[in-house]
């Protein structure tokens, strides 16, 4: 018997979504604490971490648009490597100035 569900998430995708939700909650706590304490360094660090997560999500979405119709299918190891590589790209992009999201977050929360 063949069961198929187009909307079903793999266990890896479910774990990734759960991890992202937890990270978002952690970022919210860190950002509000840094904002309340007027700790500029902690606020900037948390904002950069949040920007890196956002960039990683953009890179993940980009990768999903590329079809895997190659001659050789991607192994799980290759998929994990790409995910880790995208995470490093996101962190390095953020360190190099990113897309400006962290600066906007710091500016907005510093005004409060």
Notes on the protein architecture:
This protein has 112 residues and is an all-alpha fold. It has one domain (12-64, 72-110). 73% of the residues lie in helices and 0% in strands. It has helices spanning 11-37, 40-64, 76-95, 101-110. It is elongated and about 55 Å long. The mean pLDDT is 80.
The pLDDT mean sits at 80
Percentage of residues in strands:
under 5%
Spans of 5+ residues with little confidence (pLDDT < 50)?
none
Number of structural units classed as domains: 1
What's the helical proportion of residues?
A: over 70%
Cα gyration radius (Å): 18 Å
Question: What pattern of helices and strands is seen along the backbone?
Answer: HHHH
Question: Termini, distance in Å?
Answer: 59 Å
Number of helices: 4
For the largest beta-sheet, the strand count, sense and barrel status come to:
none
Number of strands: 0
Report the principal-axis shape.
elongated
Task: Determine the structural class based on helices, strands and strand pairing.
Answer: mainly alpha
What topology emerges from the helices and strands here?
Layout: H1 11-37, H2 40-64, H3 76-95, H4 101-110
Helix pairs in contact: 1-2, 2-3, 2-4
């Amino acid at each position: 018997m063949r069961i198929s569900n187009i909307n079903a998430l793999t266990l890896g995708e479910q774990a990734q979504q759960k991890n992202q939700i937890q990270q978002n909650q952690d970022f919210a706590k860190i950002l509000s604490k840094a904002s309340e304490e007027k700790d500029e360094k902690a606020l900037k660090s948390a904002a950069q971490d949040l920007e890196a997560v956002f960039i990683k999500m953009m890179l993940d979405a980009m990768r999903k648009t590329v079809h895997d119709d190659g001659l050789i299918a991607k192994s799980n190891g290759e998929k994990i490597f790409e995910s880790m590589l995208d995470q490093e790209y996101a962190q390095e992009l953020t360190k190099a100035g990113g897309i400006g999201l962290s600066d906007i977050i710091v500016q907005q929360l510093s005004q409060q």
